[in-house]
């Protein structure tokens, strides 16, 4: 059915693409719609079908920053747990070509041409308009990075934060301006939640001999003074 794939500014490996705590979402939906029942065992879909469109639209979630609200989750059926778990990538279908073992759903992935596309900065929506225009100081930069690391990763949080802070600081500049901190923060967030996961998909695709193509979109906006794309 599918012969070619285009991934634009994201993939299923991005932290914002998969809901890691679907039961929490189910609980909030049940509480706000009155569709109560056993959180693990009961299917609330029949109850939700009886609600009006406005009642469903009125459901409000408060997801952690940089993470999704309503999003696909690993249910073991549509999305297999073996694909998203810590199983060695060499053991799943995406690398082995095995159409019977774990990850067999992706066994044909290398047979499809893949074009993955990125812009220079993928994180504009993560900052406010004021932050984008005027920048911010080091303290706010650190606060944003700590929030991202805490919500996107599970282990070695202090080490990850220290590494990001070190690698994305321009040590050749004796004094960093508010705009320098803004630009560095945009780069960290772009690489962390979009660029690195997307390039990983391309790498996995190429390891099995798939034909991969990379596109970098570098359009310069009229507001380039504070939108450095």
UniProtKB/TrEMBL annotation:
SUPFAM superfamilies given in the database record: alpha/beta-Hydrolases (SSF53474)
UniProt key word Transferase: no
Glycoprotein as UniProt keyword: yes
Gene: LOC113472233
Protein name: Neuroligin-1-like
Protein species of origin: Diaphorina citri
Superkingdom assignment: Eukaryota
InterPro entries: AB_hydrolase_fold, CarbesteraseB, Neuroligin/BSAL
Segments forming domain Carboxylesterase type B: 1-228
PANTHER family per UniProt: NEUROLIGIN (PTHR43903)
Keywords: Glycoprotein
Pfam family, one: COesterase
Stated family: Belongs to the type-B carboxylesterase/lipase family.
């Amino acid at each position: 059915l599918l012969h070619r794939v285009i991934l634009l500014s994201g993939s299923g490996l991005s932290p914002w693409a998969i809901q890691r705590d679907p039961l929490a979402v189910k609980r909030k939906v049940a509480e706000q719609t009155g569709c109560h029942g056993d959180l693990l065992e009961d299917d609330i879909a029949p109850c939700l079908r009886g609600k009006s469109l406005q009642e469903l639209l009125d459901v409000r979630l408060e997801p952690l920053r940089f993470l999704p609200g309503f999003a696909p989750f690993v249910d073991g059926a549509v999305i297999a747990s073996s694909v998203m778990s810590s199983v060695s990538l060499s053991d799943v279908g995406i690398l082995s070509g095995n159409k019977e073992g774990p990850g067999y759903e992706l066994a044909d992935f290398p047979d499809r041409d893949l074009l993955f596309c990125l812009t220079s900065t993928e994180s504009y929506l993560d900052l406010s308009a004021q932050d984008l225009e005027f920048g911010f100081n080091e303290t706010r930069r650190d606060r944003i990075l700590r929030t991202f690391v805490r919500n996107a990763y599970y282990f070695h949080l202090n080490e990850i934060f220290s590494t990001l802070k070190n690698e994305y600081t321009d040590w050749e500049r004796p004094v960093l301006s508010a705009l320098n901190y803004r630009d560095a923060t945009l780069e960290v967030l772009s690489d962390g939640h979009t660029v690195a996961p997307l390039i990983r998909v391309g790498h996995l695709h190429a390891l099995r001999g798939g034909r991969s193509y990379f596109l970098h979109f570098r359009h310069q906006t009229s507001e380039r003074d504070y939108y450095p794309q």
